[in-house]
């Protein structure tokens, strides 16, 4: 047999099918990565509230103040121009925070607010304004004083 014919036979019988198979398995894997992973993540990240009711109102109020401080300070220090990864990290954190917040009934309220006011994670400014607006929704229900969101950057300093 001439070497060229042998080469083409080899190509047809061995190399081409294995290339095709390799290509197929790469496509399979990337499709799985695209379709399966976000579903798994979403089930965890967007799941229901974990903790039961928090009955002691003193502990509840202290927890609330500390948590708002944490949230507003986090937004004040969030990147002005976040990467896609940083945006997703903040979004997922907020949803997980709403699941794991130690006061169950507060977490329920927070999840209901999130459903109407999804986290804004495109920039430090957007995230800060979102947290301020959400805080004011809770302030209103508790008949507390509303905060002027134009002054949020003065109240919660970046410290940078
Ligand atoms: C491999 O898959 C791509 C699509 O992802 C396709 O365009 C290409 O033609 C395939 N290559 C072979 C050798 O089948
Ligand atoms: C609520 O918690 C505070 C702080 O731990 C405690 O001093 C208080 O006695 C608790 N109140 C009730 C009704 O258990």
Condensed summary:
The protein is mostly helical and 160 residues long.
Q: Mind explaining what this structure looks like?
A:
With 160 residues, the protein is an all-alpha fold. It folds into 2 domains: 1-45; 50-155, ERV/ALR sulfhydryl oxidase domain (Four Helix Bundle (Hemerythrin (Met), subunit A), Up-down Bundle). 72% of the residues lie in helices and 0% in strands. The protein is elongated, with a radius of gyration of 26 Å.
Order of helices and strands: HHHHHH
Quickly give the structural class. Answer: mainly alpha
Structural domains: how many: 2
The amount of beta strand, in percent, is under 5%
Task: Give the names of the bound compounds.
Answer: 2-acetamido-2-deoxy-beta-D-glucopyranose
Using only C-alpha atoms, the radius of gyration works out to: 26 Å
Number of strands: 0
Tell me the name of the CATH homologous superfamily of the largest domain: ERV/ALR sulfhydryl oxidase domain
For the termini, the CA-CA separation is 76 Å
The CATH topology of the largest domain corresponds to: Four Helix Bundle (Hemerythrin (Met), subunit A)
**Number of helical runs?**
6
What's the CATH class label of the largest domain?
Mainly Alpha
Uncertain segments are none
Q: Helix content range of the residues, please?
A: over 70%
Residue-averaged pLDDT, rounded?
89
Supply the CATH architecture of the largest domain: Up-down Bundle
The major sheet is characterized as: none
Shape: elongated
Domain ERV/ALR sulfhydryl oxidase: 56-156
Catalytic activity: 2 R'C(R)SH + O2 = R'C(R)S-S(R)CR' + H2O2
Signal peptide: 1-21
EC number: 1.8.3.2
């Amino acid at each position: 047999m001439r070497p060229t014919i042998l080469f083409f036979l080899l190509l047809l019988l061995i190399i081409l099918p294995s290339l095709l198979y390799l290509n197929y398995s790469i496509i399979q894997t990337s499709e799985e990565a695209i379709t399966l992973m976000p579903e798994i993540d979403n089930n965890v990240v967007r799941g229901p509230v974990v903790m039961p009711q928090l009955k002691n109102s003193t502990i509840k109020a202290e927890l609330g103040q500390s948590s708002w401080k944490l949230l507003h300070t986090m937004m004040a220090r969030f990147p002005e121009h976040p990467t896609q990864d940083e945006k997703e990290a903040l979004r997922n954190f907020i949803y997980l925070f709403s699941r794991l917040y130690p006061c169950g009934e507060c977490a329920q309220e927070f999840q209901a607010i999130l459903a109407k006011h999804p986290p804004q994670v495109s920039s430090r400014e957007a995230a800060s304004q979102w947290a301020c607006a959400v805080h004011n929704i809770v302030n209103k229900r508790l008949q507390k004083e509303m905060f002027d969101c134009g002054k949020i950057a003065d109240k919660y300093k970046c410290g940078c």
